[in-house]
Specification:
The chain is an alpha/beta fold. About 30% of the residues lie in helices and about 25% in strands. Helix 1 packs across helix 4.
């Protein structure tokens, strides 16, 4: 659900770190590692876009990572028209200041500052931070009460005492602030040479801003080491339901005297031909309907009505290519095509490989994903009497995203 903001809010997502503790990877720093099928940073940005897709978003990155971020942005289901990309500094503090400065012309009242490697931030948590700011607070910090027993240790590894956990909280992000106030605090800290702050709330406290605690989330974890990334991937992969759709198609055409039939785009000499407005390729017609069914796009007659003379005698591969394009425009990837032909004659076996190769060519699939089978009707019915040929087709398509 989109948030109806009472005041304009900007987002700074800090993603300039090198992430040495996560180990080396060909995918780059940890914010670009793949979890649940897409980069960590893409998950993070997507949650903020789900909250409100019209907020200006600044992503602060390392200067060497622009190509990695550009790739990550392609995974977003919707593209915010105001995503700003800036290079960070030597420290997180310097990177945040660069992000804040990039919002100077955005006419915002408040700003949220978030770690790019917290990909499980929930829209409810974002809303709690924003609501606290709308209530008049200078700052808002999502936090979880410390539940573990805390011990103080000595330099030689001995316990020196137990620390009371009463009133102690573990800080999370996004941390929210009045924009002008936190920008001024960061600029003052830079001018004073202060670089020892561990988060933005600490800078706000030092600058005299009142920061309010709001309820955090136990799921809003920061991915720090390789094990964190592996666990995040396992969590998302287990939760994801693939959007796999199966479409069926059926067609039949009458046989009449002629010199051959076209099936699966292959002409087979025969003493009969199939009667139809186009080339009457019953197999490709059935497969066209099967593909259209996977995205609710009607049937072949809706797109190529037999009353339209431009399709008279047309090659049926035109219809199949059109259906495949519709599927792909809807975000689908065709995984498999299977056709069963029901005919007494001609014999399909000698032409089956050529038919599969034609399907592979038209659909851009590997040969093993294209199946053609044939059977007779045991001399029963119109097929058995050689009055017509029927075809049944099944197509399997995987669509982007999850079922809704």
């Amino acid at each position: 659900m989109k948030h109806d903001k009472a005041r304009s809010t900007g987002i700074v997502i800090v993603a300039a770190g090198r992430g040495e503790r996560a180990g080396a990877s060909v995918e780059g720093p940890k914010q670009y590692r793949t979890i649940g099928g897409k980069p960590v940073i893409a998950h993070t940005i997507e949650h903020f876009q789900s909250f409100a897709d019209d907020m200006p978003v600044v992503v602060v990155i390392h200067p060497d990572d622009r190509a990695l971020l550009d790739r990550a942005l392609t995974f977003l289901p919707q593209r915010n028209s105001d995503i700003r990309i800036v290079s960070g500094g030597q420290t997180r503090q310097a990177s945040v200041l660069a992000g804040l400065m990039a919002l100077h012309d955005a006419a915002i009242d408040t700003v949220l500052i978030h770690d790019g490697v917290r990909p499980f931030v929930e829209t409810d948590l974002i809303a709690r931070v924003v609501s606290s700011l709308e209530g008049g607070a200078d700052g808002a910090l999502p936090a979880m009460p410390v539940t573990d027993t805390l011990k103080r240790g000595t330099p030689d590894g001995l316990i020196d005492g137990t620390v009371s956990r009463a009133g102690l909280y573990a800080a999370q992000t996004p941390q929210g602030f009045a924009y002008a106030a936190i920008l001024a605090a960061h600029q003052r800290a830079e001018a004073d040479g202060r670089t020892d702050f561990t988060d933005d709330a600490a800078i706000a406290e030092w600058a005299g801003l009142a920061v309010r605690l709001v309820e955090g989330s136990p799921d809003n974890v920061k991915l720090t080491i390789q094990r964190d990334i592996a666990m995040a991937d396992a969590k998302l992969s287990a939760a994801a339901l693939p959007d796999v759709r199966t479409g069926n198609g059926y067609d039949v055409h009458q046989l009449e005297a002629g010199d051959g039939v076209t099936l699966c785009g292959i002409f087979i000499p025969h003493d009969q031909k199939l009667k139809g407005h186009s080339d009457a390729d019953v197999a490709l017609h059935a497969l066209t309907d099967a593909l259209l069914a996977t995205c609710g796009a009607g049937d072949i007659g809706d797109h190529f009505p037999p009353s339209d003379m431009q399709w008279k005698g047309a090659a049926s591969r035109i219809f199949l290519e059109h259906a495949a394009k519709i599927v792909r425009d809807h975000g689908g990837t065709i995984m498999n095509a299977d056709i069963s032909l029901i005919a007494e004659a001609p014999k399909i076996g000698p032409h089956r490989l050529a038919m599969r190769e034609k399907l592979s060519e038209i659909l851009g699939l590997s040969l093993e994903r294209c199946s053609v089978k044939a059977t007779t009707n045991e001399t029963i019915g119109f097929v058995g009497r050689r009055e017509g040929i029927a075809a049944i087709a099944t197509a399997t398509v995987v669509f982007a995203g999850q079922p809704s």
